[in-house]
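Researcher: Here's my situation. A collaborator sent me these components and asked whether they could plausibly form a single complex. I don't have experimental data yet, so a predicted model of the whole assembly would be a useful starting point for our discussion.
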Amino acid sequence: MEHHLQNLYEVLSKVDGYVYPNEIELNWSILIVLYPYITGLVAGAFILASLERIFKLRVLKPTYGIALLTALSFMLVATMPLISHLGKPMRAYEIMITPHLSSAMAIFGFVYLWYLMVVLLLEIWFDYRRDMVVWANETTGFKRFLYRLLSLYTTDISPKAVALDNKLGYIVTVIGVPSAFLLHGYVGFIFGSIKANPWWSTVLMPVIFLFSAIVSGIALVMLVYIVLTRIRKLSVDMACLDTIARYLFYILIMDFVLEGLDQIHRIYEAEESFEVLHNLVFGRLFFTLFIMQGLLGTIVPLLTLGILQFYKPKEQIRKVIYVVVPLLILMGIFFMRWNVVIGGQLFSKSFYGYTSFKIGLIGTEGYLMAAVWLIVPFLILSFLLWLLPPWKKKEEEESETLVA
Amino acid sequence: MTEPKSKISRRNFFKAGTIIVGGVAVASAFTPFDSFLFASEPPKGKGKWYGIGIDINKCIGCGKCANACKLENNVPMDPFYFRSWVEQYTIKKDGTIKVESPNGGIDGFTQSIPDDEIFKSFFVPKMCNHCAKSPCTQVCPVGATFETPEGIVLVDDNYCIGCRYCVQACPYGCRFINPEKGTAEKCTLCIHRLEKGMQPACFEICPTEARIFGDLNDPESKINDFLKNHTTMVIKPHLNTGSKLFYNALTSEVR
């Protein structure tokens, strides 16, 4: 409390121009930056997995299971920054049991549960059911119990049953793609529907969020796949990485175009808020917007991936590129969320001035806490990969031909 | 002896059950779409419907309103939490605009710009607009913020989860999170005083009677008299929040 006030007095001394007195305090800090970032990674990873499944892109097979488990790991954590940010975290359940339906935020619980329970868990369950039954027979002790429990004590792994698993899994994937779009488009709507804030209030916001989500999710899966292959001391499947990089390039173009369109529209229309936003992006947001998000997070990856479409350097160089580019993209999208969430609160709704953002190392809203919420999903992912290793799955060729 | 078999077979029972449950589910899936219409429907006030009038020409910037509000409503005294505050606008001859509100105007104002550079200067008291289609009510995820039938926007702090979405949604900067309670807080139009037939604290203390309020549905009320006899305007009319705080002599610089 004392520390909080001390912070505010410090921010007060840095206010530039005039802000409403209640605006000196920044209401949504780094945890709310993480929330769209993490949900974006979920949606993106899932969509990459769906590409393989729906469009039968066999070449992406090595990343399918990894993508699904990555999506699940991040999904399980997605609500944590939100809940820990609440002034009254113990009342969080109210949003589920008494949702106020005109609020975009109230729908979050339902979209989240739909996506987690119906889409992700079901798809993974159908995908792994047969393997879990098999693994349960091959293992002993606690692991065996876990597999039994997770397979819900089913034992039928006849070709007919497995074919049904595949069919239902496919249906879930088909439902899953629009659901992933819904999940992240919806997150964009939370910001895009705030008419009080001209930096947020754009009809393009859900679409921009969606495409940046896909970009970040694909980049993450690429990295996880490379690191995992390295840990397992195998060589990466270059055909797979090349294909992912190509899709990443296409979607990055769409993302870039959409964000560009948003900015062009703002500049051309130059509404009442133009001046304050202009000074914002060239002032307090310059570094995070132009350098981190624009140059390093978008332009450099775009050019690099673009060149790869015409000129293929040696495998060794491509391998390096496929590590560096996803890292840059992940950083760029993080700063995109930062620029939206923090940027949208740095200027006054009176359009007469700017406040500033101060973040500490410790505390529930500090850097360390934020780092925790970014590390936890990787711990969950490690556990899931140990429990459900996609590379140990039995080949499904015969059962899939049955479906077809 | 065997029990007589029920005429309702298990199959029929499930069939009927499915139809009923499914029907209810489908029907309830459609009603929430009304929620989209929150801001596009006209306001519904029928009985008493409070509106507020502030006469900028009468405000002398004493800041007593901001102070009275804090004392009456136990608002934290630090300069980051205000339900009511006063802004000083100074428009210079070169066209630049300076806005100030040191400690919300509670300690009064000094003019930092030399007289010969000033084109004009005036004070604007700010408070919740008690919007009829209030964006803060619209976005509250649990319905802790609500509009009373008299058109007063309130927060139930036993219910608020402190998500801060309403603070983001208010175009006028009228909300904050109470640092001790962790819940949203805003002007209540001193409803606890209204119920006793008293005026809100900021209205009562104003030495120049720059603030008035009353029932917009009563043609004889003070607020309707104010609206009739002055050229009034709301702040940020383009946002269509249904603001019920009407200013006399409001100029385009005020946001």
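Model: Some features of this prediction you could bring to your collaborator: DSSP finds seven helices and eleven strands in chain B. Chain B touches chain A through 53 residues (CB under 8 Å).
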